[in-house]
Amino acid sequence: MTLKEKINQEFITAMKSKNKLKISVLKMLKADILNEEIAKNNKESLDDNQLLQLLAKSIKKRKNTIEEFKRLNKEEYAKQEEAELEYLTPFLPKQLSVDEIKKIVQKTISDTEAMSMKDMGKVIKKIKEDYTGQVDMSMVTDLVKKQLV
Q: What is the DSSP letter of 40?
């Protein structure tokens, strides 16, 4: 079952159970998917890797919004965003641990023969392609910077 099929299945389940919040979140996600397909002028659906990138971007936006609401002492809005986030995260693959990410960064740096900060882009691109949705890319970026300095 593809990721898009899983999202549609969860949407149907939410409709049957009349879970308004989940319906709303999944409708937004489906709209984002459709907009991305239109933007890329695809006649075919996005593949799972592209969907994971879109999902990760959506989750990152929500996390940033939660932080901003908390910074502004708007706890009610932050809780709303956190509740919505709970419906998106199950679609992501298992997240890798910090130690696993460190090993991946070291291996990718040696595989791509990166020597300096000039090579940072190709290292990050390779990790993003291979581990979409499984790693926190901001952490990867920080680790690559530390390794290539």
A: T
Residues of the chain scoring pLDDT < 70: 42-43
| Amino acid present at 65 | T
Q: Residue 121: helix, strand or coil by DSSP?
A: helix
Nearest CA to 109 out of 58, 145, 55, 67 is that of 145
Contact 58, 25 (CB under 8 A): no
pTM of the model: 0.75
Domains, the chain: 3-91 (1.10.1510.10), 98-148 (1.10.10.410)
Look at the block and give the residue holding tokens 């996600």. 29
Task: Select from 112, 105, 129 the least CA-distant residue to 53.
Answer: 129
* Residue-level pLDDT at 15: 96
Picking from 33, 66, 39, 34, the residue whose alpha carbon sits closest to that of residue 52 is: 33
| Element containing residue 52 per DSSP (H, E) | helix 48-71
Distance CA 120, CA 122 (A): 6
* Residue 63: closest CA among 136, 145, 11: 136
Q: Are 135 and 97 in contact (CB under 8 A)?
A: no
